Amino acid sequence: MKKQFASVWLAASFAALAAPVMAAENCGRVSIAEMNWASAGVAAHVDKIILESGYGCEVELVTGDTMPTFTSMNEKGEPDMAPELWVNAVKVALEAAVAEGRLILAAPLLAEGGEEGWWVPRYIVDAHPEITTVSAALARPDLFPAPEDPGRGAVHNCPSGWNCQITTENLYRALEADAKGFDLVDTGSAAGLDGAIANAYERKAGWLGYYWAPTAILGKYEMVKLDFGVPLDKAHFDTCTSQPDCPDPKVTAYPVSEVFTVVTRAFAEKAGVAMEYVQTRKWSNATVNQVLAWMETNQGTNEDGARHFLETYPELWRDWVPADVAQKVKAAL
């Protein structure tokens, strides 16, 4: 289903581009949404640097978030670009906007999409190569001792108040983890969850629980996402796994979140020279994890992270642009 949606959107986007537009030779003024989470903020600054130094655009960054940014782009045609839009939250409205030519779907910025799952440290898998699935991990509560009761194992939950707290609890029930000797441990907050992973790594202790990507913690500590052993049951996930009153949860994989760059038709018209760039550039979650980890260690801003990326990964971003543009960007760093 994910591929079908993406194919429909891309086809509609290309059709919109094929329609007669007066694409300017020069880029002109461009507004870009700097979303309020780190990976999207870095992407916005990468785009700003490349569009300004490589294509001669005049770029303004504006504060953004998923719903208000999409609504403004769809209804008012501004800002011109959302570099990292998690489209599952606006899928129906986005399909309509693309089909009607108001918005254009560009590159899938996160090559693998946004990931959720249950993870363990790499050193656990290295020492116990049979632990590649959630079921295999749940067969070994001794490897993942609970902080309050080392005689039982622990599954660390998502931060309180987040929807993933509900999905983790329902999957814990579906897997009958309690009967297998595991407690569901409340981490309280994102900081608490990160601290639990960091503490486990420092002691080379076992750890099992929910996490997501891309994030700084996965760039700092090498973790392995476990297989649930079954494919995604999207209908069940939407109607039961993700709901607080799920009466009979079943085991299912997590859905992958589609993450695209979205631009307005006006951007394609006034900054047509840069359209190939925004239709090409994408990066892996592993790359983003590393950049975010560098930012956390060095207390870097989104702009610092963008410059670190451009200076550290030239072999990646140079494939996004023509050689002459790459030279201009390099000279500006």
TrEMBL record:
Domain ABC-type glycine betaine transport system substrate-binding per the UniProt entry, residue ranges: 29-311
Signal found in the keyword field: yes
CDD domains recorded: PBP2_HisX_like (cd13641)
Molecular-function GO terms, alphabetical: transmembrane transporter activity
Signal peptide (residue range): 1-18
One GO location term (cellular component): ATP-binding cassette (ABC) transporter complex
Matches recorded under SUPFAM superfamilies: Periplasmic binding protein-like II (SSF53850)
UniProt keyword list: Signal
Name of this protein: Glycine betaine/proline transport system substrate-binding protein
Organism expressing this protein natively: Rhodobacter capsulatus
Taxonomic placement: Bacteria, Pseudomonadati, Pseudomonadota, Alphaproteobacteria, Rhodobacterales
